[in-house]
Design a protein that fits this description.
The protein is of the alpha+beta class and 114 residues long. The chain has helices at 2-21, 26-46; strands at 57-65, 83-93, 96-108. The chain crosses the membrane at residues 28-46.
Length: 114
Amino acid sequence: MRLSRELVVVAVLLVVIGALARTSAGRFVLPLVALGVAASLGYLLLKTPAYPRTAIGPRTRILESSPSDGAATCVECTAPATTVRHYVREWVVVGVPVVLLDDGRNPVCDDHRN
């Protein structure tokens, strides 16, 4: 469902760009759009990648930290949690997260850590 919506947006953008290319305004606007895309890609390539540079599409990262409060309990067995796992699902382009799709946290104890 989400992919079909994105394909429709891409198709509409291509139709608008095609229609714009046939007008005299397109000679001014299209080079600016191309320059903006090139600058955005350059910015993405200069950022430190969170994933390998070959990663494109949805990816998930899990970050672990110690719980900030002592009242956190394990989601599996209700024992005191020793680790909090933060999961982040992101849309990635050339290894750089572009869009946050989902995130959350799960406190776990040592028994359920692996």
